[in-house]
Every structure is written in structure tokens, then in C-alpha cells.
Specification:
325 residues; mainly beta; six-stranded mixed β-sheet; globular
């Protein structure tokens, strides 16, 4: 082993040990918000990652749908990114230690898990709880980074994997794109167990694509749309749109009407680097970091018509999913 390689290995081990120690310290500190430990959630609710510092930091939590600022329930499960339906939860987790690893775990009525190649990014479950998707970074930790690469897996809840959908055929304006720099992320499912939407990127451009699990194709729908989220009624897609530059993105929340193919900016209040969630057909939820507080964030809400400014919906929260029994 060369001297440079040996030094690099030592640096990795030291940083891994520090991250592990910090993680243990965060979880052993007193909770900064009131939380009730539970083994399972019930009722109409919003599930999310608890970002209040203390012993429950990073755990899956929930609040009643009709009382989002109310007391939260907290499960023992740790997640970096999560999504839940009434039957399933997908949890993407960083396992901090001397050597850090990452895991995707599906729990609920059916269970499965697999390792991830890198930092967790996005996850979704179809409304009927029959399909799951996750995205992780193979290299890089941000979609704004130069040279980032992702892996996105779609599987059935019973364990059949469609593999990395980057290997599907990508068609942009009818022409195949076979470049090695293709990346696919941000899956959102339709309700037919066949089609989905996602973001595709290549050569510095991004597209909203419609995916087909049977034909294994990704077909461009609209340019410059990222992290799509299909509305409950299936007529609109919420997404983030870059109002800045490639190197310094400024993410605005926008809506695409799928019938008219018309885009509307919902909010420019602050830059939102998240895959938004629909609270209902008229309101969106998203996570946003707390300024100056590393590791903490809040879930915000904003009406899709942009009639009022965004406001905090759940304090000390991240990665929201709306669950209706």
C-alpha cells in the first residue's frame, strides 16, 4: 500500500469514528421536543423523520393529520429518508461506523431489505402499496455536484426487482439517449402498477420521463423538470425547477398540468431541494433545512395555487409522507 493510500485510509477511519461518536451523542442526549414512544402508528397522519435533537433524533415519527403541530409519536426505527403508506414503510438508512454502509428496508405487511451503494436520496411507494422505489448516490451527495451518479431501483413489495432503471431505454423527443452519464431519480408512481414518472439527466439537461415497467422504457415528457410528485387525482405533477444556474441552483416549486402541459411556479419563497409530497389536491408539503442549524429541518406547506406564502407545517421534521388508512 502506498503512503498516500495509507493516509487516505486513516482519514476515512478517523472521520467514520467521529461520525459514529457524534451519532451516539445525539441519540443519548435529552429530547428537545415532547415525544411518545410507540411500536406502530395508527389513524390519518403524517409520518416523517424526526430532526429534533435528542435520543429520538433520526427516528420515524408521526403526528395526526388534523393536528400537525401536536404531540408526536416516535417509533424505534432510524431513517435518513422515508416514505409510508397505510401498509408499508420504505426506510433508507446510513449505518454510521468505522466503515459506513447504507441500507434500504421495507417494513409493514411485507418486508424486504437490500444494501445501497451510497448516500440515500429519494424513496416512494405506490398508492396501492404494491411498488417501491429508492434512489441513492453512487458518487456525490447532491444533484448540483459535478459528476454525481445515482442508482434507482424499482421493486414489487413482494420482492421482484426491476433492477436499476438507468438500464431502461431512454428516449428523448423520440431519439435514443445512450450516453454513459445518464442518471435517473425521483420516481413517482401512477395507479396502474406499470407506469411511473421520474427525472432523467444527461449532458447537462434534465427531463420529466414517463417510465414503463413492461417495455422497460423511459420516454421524455417535458424538459427541465426534477423530482416529480404526481397529484392524488393524477392530473398534475409537482416538481422543483432550477431558477439559478447548474453550479448554483435555486429550486422553485412548480406544477405541471398534464392535460394542458402548462407549467406554473407555485413558490419562490426559498430554494427547495426536495421531492414534494401532496397533502391533498390543493396543498404541497416539503422539507427545508433550518438556517444555521446543521442537521435540523422543518416540513413546510404551500397551496398549489400560490395564493399564500409557505408556512411551517411540522417543526423539526424531514421527509414527510401523508398516510390515510
Amino acid at each position: 500500500m502506498s503512503a498516500i493510500s495509507a493516509i487516505a485510509l486513516i482519514v476515512v477511519i478517523v472521520f467514520g469514528a467521529l461520525a459514529y461518536a457524534q451519532s451516539k451523542a445525539e441519540r443519548s442526549a435529552p429530547n428537545s421536543v415532547a415525544a411518545t414512544p410507540v411500536t406502530r402508528f395508527s389513524g390519518a397522519r403524517v409520518e416523517f423523520r424526526n430532526t429534533a435533537f435528542g435520543a429520538d433524533y433520526g427516528k420515524v415519527a408521526s403526528v395526526p393529520l388534523d393536528d400537525p403541530m401536536g404531540a408526536r409519536s416516535v417509533s424505534p426505527q432510524l431513517c435518513d429518508r422515508l416514505y409510508s403508506t397505510s401498509k408499508l414503510t420504505m426506510c433508507l438508512t446510513t449505518n454510521a461506523g468505522i466503515v459506513t454502509t447504507w441500507t434500504a428496508q421495507q417494513t409493514g405487511s411485507q418486508e424486504q431489505s437490500w444494501s445501497l451503494p451510497g448516500v440515500p436520496s429519494r424513496t416512494r411507494i405506490s398508492a396501492n402499496s404494491q411498488l417501491v422505489a429508492e434512489t441513492s448516490f453512487v458518487t456525490g451527495v447532491s444533484y448540483a455536484a459535478v459528476g454525481f451518479a445515482t442508482e434507482t431501483i424499482i421493486a414489487t413489495a413482494t420482492g421482484k426487482s426491476y433492477g436499476n432503471i438507468e438500464r431502461f431505454s431512454l428516449l428523448v423527443d423520440g431519439a435514443p439517449v445512450t450516453a454513459a452519464d445518464r442518471n435517473i431519480w425521483g420516481v413517482t408512481f401512477t395507479d396502474d402498477n406499470r407506469y411511473f414518472y421520474a427525472t432523467a439527466a444527461s449532458g447537462g439537461s434534465t427531463w420529466l420521463v414517463r417510465g414503463d415497467l413492461v417495455d422497460r422504457t423511459l420516454t421524455s415528457v417535458q424538459k427541465d423538470l426534477e423530482c416529480p410528485s404526481l397529484s392524488p387525482d393524477g392530473t398534475r405533477i409537482a416538481f422543483k425547477k432550477n431558477g439559478g444556474t447548474v453550479s448554483t441552483p435555486v429550486w422553485h416549486i412548480a406544477i405541471l398540468d398534464l392535460e394542458r402541459m402548462a407549467e406554473t411556479i407555485v413558490s419562490r419563497e426559498h430554494s427547495v431541494d426536495d421531492q414534494v409530497e401532496w397533502l391533498d389536491d390543493s396543498t404541497l408539503l416539503y422539507g427545508h433545512p433550518r438556517p444555521g442549524v446543521v442537521g435540523d429541518s422543518d416540513v413546510w406547506s404551500v397551496p398549489v395555487d400560490g395564493s399564500t406564502a409557505p408556512k411551517v407545517f411540522i417543526e423539526h421534521a424531514w421527509s414527510p409522507s401523508v398516510v390515510r388508512p
